[in-house]
Amino acid sequence: MKFKSNFKITAPSTITNIGCGLNIFGLAISALQDEIIVKPSNHPGVHITSIRNNSAKLPVSSKKNTAGTAAQLVLNHIKREYNLDKSHGLSFELIKSIPIGLGLGSSAASGVAGAIAVNEAFGNPLSKKELLPFIIKGNLMTNTQACAIPAIASITGGLTLVRDENALEYHRMPVPKGLHVVVCHPISKTKKERQVRYNIATSTALINSNLQTANAAALIHGLHTSNFDLISKALKEQITEDLWVNSFSFYKEAKESALLNNAICCSISNYGPTIFALCKSNIDAETVAESIEKVFLNNNRALKVYISKVNQLGASLT
Fold first, then answer.
1. Do residues 20 and 237 touch, judged by C-beta distance below 8 A?
2. Residue 226: other Cβ atoms inside 10 A
3. Cβ atoms of residues 31 and 54 within 8 Å
4. 82-105: per-residue pLDDT in tens?
5. Domain at 180-309: CATH architecture
6. Domain range list for the chain
7. Does residue 44 have a cis peptide bond before it, meaning omega lies within 30 degrees of 0?
8. What is the pTM of this model?
9. CA 73/CA 8 separation, integer angstroms
């Protein structure tokens, strides 16, 4: 098995909990991506030599960093299964472009990039799907929560339907031509936004489950037929909407403004506080982005805004 080094891997950020898809859909976006530059190391194992843009002070130790833990697990597996020289080592320079703790799959993307980097270094013996268990296990070693859906979306790209998260069964959905994503996140989180968790009463979930299921099915049909009207009708969050309104500053006003300006939908990604909107075109996306930004500026809240295409490639060699 040939050893390769001196290359770069990118892994895209992700939007999850898309409208009707609470823990069902994941969408990879091109605007924000983590990168790993891979070089050989004289020491066995995976070693993170530096982290650029490390405002969050992520640990450089590969045992405490999601990119490092996932990469080391993959390296251990490849060495064991393919009887490779145990002295092989890799050096990583991690470039963090995805902000941490804002619902954009930052941790998952780092783990994806690390796993892909090791796999690429040894000639890609594992498929992307085979890498996922190592990524999720590596994430659990450094975090308290798994990252299956954002990891799946980041590694595969596009829009994925995750039918069974535990079994890692997922399916790529078609993405209508022209679809753009507006991504908006505050510069910092309020105390209330930091405390958000999925604290949804079972009765509420049950009452809304039939409509939620119907909307998810309608969304899939709308994606296959490029029916934007049906997609817009289907992308209604029946379970968490009240939680979003009560927890995230100016979310209700931002959503109303986005929809008035032709957004297909507007919601919160993952645990937030990132707001995203799906749009039919880049022109609509620019108008929607301006409208959301105006809501926050009028309330003296700093905001970062990105307009992005859907990343169809997923994590890859660049």
1. yes
2. 14
3. no
4. 988 888 899 999 999 999 989 999
5. 2-Layer Sandwich (3.30)
6. 7-173+312-317, 180-309
7. no
8. 0.91
9. 19
